[in-house]
Every structure is written in C-alpha cells, then in structure tokens.
Amino acid sequence: MHSEFAHIPLDRLRYGLVWEDHATLYQALDLGPADHALIITSAGCNALNALLAGPRQVTAIDLNPLQNQLLALKMHAIAHHPPAVLRGLLGLAGPAAVAAATVALQTTLPPADYAAWAAYLAQHPRGLLLAGQLESYVTGFVPSLPAAWQARLRGLLDCDSVAEQAAYFRQELDQPDFRARFGAYFDAVNLSQGRDPRLFRYAAESGGTTFYERLRRQLGQQLARDNFFFRFLFFGPENLPEALLPPCYRAANHQLLRRRLSRLRLVTGEASEFLLSAAGHDVTKASLSNIFEYVSPAEFGRVSRALATRPAPLRLVFWNLLQAQAPRRTAAVPLLPALSTDLGAHDACFYFGGVRVLDYLTDSTDLTDGADAPAAQFSSLIAYSSVLLSTAFSR
C-alpha cells in the first residue's frame, strides 16, 4: 500500500498509547476461538486486548520496529513480573513507581536490553504511556492553560449526569477564549508536534476546530469522568480508576494474559500487504487503526479491491481521523454502514471522525447489515515477506 507513513523516519516511539477504543474493537470484530486476528501494534494495547478475547492467534504488526519493541517489553513485564511492575512502567502510579519498576526489570531482562530500557525510561520518567511523540504533545494542552481554565476543565469530572455535564461545559468552558486556546493548540501547525506533517497530506478537515466540535459533541453524550481517553488526554495517567483502564492493564486480567502470550506474535511490516500475502491468508479479523488516513482515496479503493481477492472471509475495522475514507458502501468497499455508524457514535475517543467496519465475504452475498453484494473480485496480490521482530530493544 502506498502510504505517507512510508515517507517518515521510524526512529522513535510515535505512540505510547493506543487511542482506538477496545470496546469498539470487540464489538466490530466479535473475536472467537477460531479467529486469527491481525492488529496494528502501535503501543500494543489492542493487541493485548484482542488476546483477552480468546482468538487462537493474534499477530501484531507495525512498520515501526520500535512500536513492536514497546509491546515486547510489555509482554516481558506480563510474563515475568506482577501487575504492579507493568502498572509502574506505564506511569499509572507516578514517577516513583516508574523508577521502581525499572529497577525490577534488571532481574529479568538481559543486561544490554535492561541498559537500553533503563536509559529510555530515565528520559521519560513519567512512564511509557507518556513516552510517545503524540502523547507528550496532546497531554501538554492542559498545562499550557491558565490555572483558572485548568480548574474549570477538572470540574467536568464532578458532573453526575450527561445533562449536567453538557450544561456545565456550555456555561464554564464553551467561551471564545477557551475555544481559541484549544483551536490554536491543536491546529495543523502545532499538531505536527504530535504527528509528522506529511501524514496530513490527505486531511480534509482542520485539526483544532474539528477536534473541538467533536469534544463538545461527546460531552453531550458520555460522562467525562467515566471516559479513559478524556481523563488521560487532559489529566494524564496517574490515579486513574482501575475500572477505566484498558482491559489489558487491569490487574484482574494479568494472569490470563500471561497464559495466552504464546498466541501473540510480532511482525514488522505493512498490514494490508500482510493480509494479501500467503502468511496472512488465514487472518479472519483485523483492526487497522487509522492507517487509511495516510493514503489517497484512490489507493484505499485499490487496496479494498485487492482484499476482496483473499481466499477466506475477512472482517476488518479502522478509524477515520481527518479524512473520511469509505463514506458509503460501494462495489469495491463492503462497508457495514449501520454498524459503522453506531460504533462511531459510541467510540470512547472523541477526536476520531468515525469507525468503519468492512466485511469481505468469499461465498455469500448476504451481509447482515443490509448492504449490497460483496466487493468485486480482482486477481492481483501484493507480495509480502514477514519478519518476526526480536524482543530486544535497539538503541
């Protein structure tokens, strides 16, 4: 797939957190024991969340080997340490716990790997969730505000109902000064601090204004105090209630994850090419993050037509950010429109523009979403050579 992501240097962790909602992932893919799930690695959260759903295999794939190495470290912590160490590494319990968890790694990691991770965590003393380029940028918004605006934002967490919250937002926050500050911080120029500007080549909407309207809409639909992504973005990872964490980071799921780690493998490569390769033909479910944000509509259509040539059915989900890929079902794009609309309306992360669920069937024209016949078949396949990533961290 021709993606703008191929043109940026893969020399740092770009994501410390997966921003795609695990609940949307579960509902979109309905993972079962016969499934082989392909998950974009990013920070590894949804690869681990998928593992909890019990598929026979999960393949985490990323173009950036550093993202896979981050997931490998989390897998190591799950396999060899109690939940408190993983929690500490993530930054959920503050800088002192990050330092203590780093010391604990010394007893189980090879010396070279430990030295590399210890140096990295010394540079990011607030933990792995804040170590990504995107997270270090977005979580800087609230500290950039005057104290009065910070206090008003925190007041959203005291609201007991959505109606009370929406009214509070209108009265205390939805004012020209706050809108201007939010829009300026998240506009196209500043947004490049969190994402390489080359990734916005196909963006059809403006970051700051669009994200503000999405935030306002969500605050009229979901309680901010119960929303992990809202609380993380505005107030950071410390002291988050256990029940709000992604399932893979809850202590109650630690042992189950440990037992299932053998089902998870890491691959460095491009997701659509893997799906079209012999190695990916038995993948039945796929979560592709927002990788289609970085391709032209024509390229997206080409990839979708190629996916229809696979010999087995495939259900996939992806998220739109500032480009509306797959706005409707066509012969080339087997969109499930009703399910996509419903999931997009309830996704926990406010800044996404929509969820898209596609269902490629090889032997049936019956799509449960009431859509047209499946995508037309095309014969071209894209060659792919998968490379298993070592769990070692390279400097």
Q: Explain this structure to me?
A:
This protein is an alpha/beta fold. The chain has two domains: 4-128 and 249-388, Vaccinia Virus protein VP39 (Rossmann fold, 3-Layer(aba) Sandwich); 140-235, no CATH class. It has 17 helices and seven strands. Helix 4 packs across helix 5 (95-105), helix 5 (95-105) runs antiparallel to helix 6 and helix 10 (176-185) crosses helix 12. The chain is globular. The model is unreliable at 363-395 (pLDDT under 50).
Topology diagram in text:
Blueprint: H1 22-29, E1 36-40, H2 45-52, E2 57-62, H3 65-80, H4 83-90, H5 95-105, H6 111-123, H7 133-138, H8 147-154, H9 162-173, H10 176-185, H11 188-191, H12 207-219, H13 228-235, H14 254-260, E3 264-268, H15 271-275, E4 285-287, H16 297-307, E5 314-320, H17 337-346, E6 354-360, E7 387-388
Helix pairs in contact: 4-5, 5-6, 10-12
Structure characteristics:
395 residues, Rossmann fold, 2 domains, alpha/beta, 17 helices, 7-stranded mixed sheet
Helix content: 40-55%
Strand line-up of the largest beta sheet: 6-5-4-1-2-3-7
Structural class: alpha/beta
Query: Largest beta sheet, briefly?
Result: 7 strands, mixed
Total count of strands: 7
| Strand proportion | 5-15%
Number of domains: 2
The name of the CATH architecture of the largest domain is: 3-Layer(aba) Sandwich
The CATH superfamily of the largest domain bears the name Vaccinia Virus protein VP39
| Shape category | globular
Rounded radius of gyration (Å): 21 Å
Which topology of the largest domain does CATH recognise? Rossmann fold
**Termini, distance in Å?**
28 Å
